[in-house]
Amino acid sequence: MRILFFILAVILPLQAAEPQIEKGAVVVLPVDGVVSEAQFVFLRRVLKKAEAAGASALILNMDTPGGSLKATEKIIQMLMKSPLPVYTYVNPNAGSAGALIALGTKKIFMAPVSAIGAAAPVSGSGEEISETMNAKIVSYYSGYFRSVAELNGYHPELVDGFMNLDKEVKVGDQVINPKGALLTLSAQEAVKLIGDRPLLATGIAKDVDGVCQAAGWDPKAVIEIPPSGFEVLAQWLTLLAPVLLLGGIIGAYMEFKTPGFGVPGIVSAVCLILFFFGHYIAGLTGLEVVGVFALGLLLVLAELLFFPGVVIVAALGATLMVGALFFAMVDFYPAQPLDFSFSVMARPMINLSLAIIASVFGIALLARFLPDIPVFRRLFLSAQSPTGSSIPTSPGTVNCPELSIGDSGTALTILRPAGTAMIGGVLVDVVTQGQFIESGRPVRILSISGEAIVVEQA
After folding, report:
1. Helix (H) or strand (E) holding 136
2. Were both Cys, which of 117, 258, 314, 415 would link to 437 (CB 3.0–4.6 Å)?
């Protein structure tokens, strides 16, 4: 609980300090450092906020040496789906992946001293890729980014110059880059006219205000949104979604099976809080999904506590909870039509399926081996005499000569799976193999192992 309060105390001021995006605003987003999944998470979150607020445009204020090709592809797909016009301001570097991202925006402006290009693929460690693998990557991605460039009105031939050492680049009849060198354009080269259109960039601007003036936007409407310190944390939490779901489900199962509220319940709560928190910061979900999950949880608890046996209440609650967990991972955008395509739904389905399948196996193993784990017995097996009871008790040991395998008795407390039963006139601590047995039900000794009496419902 203290950890939760600490997180909230840190998050709320940070969220409040971020500038609010107003209708008609021109939102400026920094693209600094290495392009990565964290950069994608940040851009996605702010893009969704900009769409929802009715912003008029976005400007990527770019200074990057490059980065992940996969993250670059995801950023471009996101930008090209947005109804908002997105411009790039190269200030001062758009190397490698930065150059490719710029091709995914509607217009490019250059700082007076700046450069763009050199997008040959390299390994994650910065080393050259083997010749065969490099040929495959260049062949596929040069085709992909040529289509991106052509769709946004750029010369598609430039992509080959950026990525392919083995190709001479010509625009019309003019040779732009010779074979054997990667193309990198200065600001002045990028705005050079080839025929009736610039080679790449629309113009040169000394700052973001200059970009706004050239585009016909009011510089006073500019809002700069810096990335928060939680963007990287959100990336890791979303990547660990199956693990968090697994911890939440198994923790809830163990808490349900043990008396009181203890460690399993805390683990389950922390895992689910981190799951929703990560997806909220990453811009994948809103508070309404958390509300649906909470409503489903309340319905399940209502069935267990007040309406036992009314399966439809718990079934509805479980459906709402599973639905909330699924849609918390679905990447919807406020200003775009709902997209239920396989590419959008695949990752949530895989994450949720992995978590459910792993939980089923984990719960089966716990049900089979939990009663025999000494730590579990020490944590959950304790003398639990009913208040005011005058029934003769055992000191807690199972070495009672009058008890043996097959003896029957009655559960005096709820067994989930540990509790107390009256067997052969002796009050003893018992544990099931994971089954839930209500108070008053007949039980039978299944095995006697060490200090534990394992029972089943008779």
Report:
1. helix 131-151
2. 415
Provide the greatest CA pair distance for the chain: 104
DSSP-H helix ranges across 306-373: 311-327, 342-369
Whether pLDDT at 125 is above 60? no
B/e letters for 90-114, b = 16+ CB within 10 Å, e = fewer, are bbebbbbbbbbbbbbbbbbbbbeeb
Cα–Cα distance, 78 to 331 (Å, whole number): 10
Strands 426-431 and 107-110: unpaired
pLDDT confidence bin for 454, thresholds 50/70/90: confident
Peptide bond into 178 cis (omega under 30): no
Which residues have a Cβ under 8 Å from the Cβ of 22 and sit 6 or more positions away?
53, 55, 223
SS3 123: coil
329 contacts 241 by C-beta, under 8 angstroms: yes
Domains and CATH numbers, the chain: 20-224 (3.90.226.10), 250-372 (no CATH), 380-457 (2.40.50.140)
- CA separation (Å) from 287 to 238, 245, 258, 324, 429? 16, 18, 31, 11, 44
| Distance spanning both ends of the chain, measured CA to CA | 41
Provide the H-helix boundaries in 240-309.
241-257, 263-281, 287-305
Coil/strand/helix, residue 238: helix
Tokens of 211: 């970009």
DSSP β-bridge partners for residue 95? 117
Contacts of 143 (CB under 8 A, 6+ apart): none
Contacts of 341 (CB under 8 A, 6+ apart): none
Summarised one tens digit per residue, pLDDT across range 380-433 is 444 343 443 433 444 444 445 567 888 889 988 877 677 888 888 888 888 887
* Cα–Cα distance for residue pair 271/249, rounded to 1 Å: 9
- How far apart are the C-alpha atoms of 37 and 231, rounded to whole Å? 9
Q: At a CB cut-off of 8 Å and minimum separation 6, what does 96 contact?
A: 65, 66, 67, 118, 119, 120
Distance CA 334, CA 49 (A): 8
Comparing 153-157, 199-203, 388-392, 441-445, the range with the smallest average pLDDT is 388-392
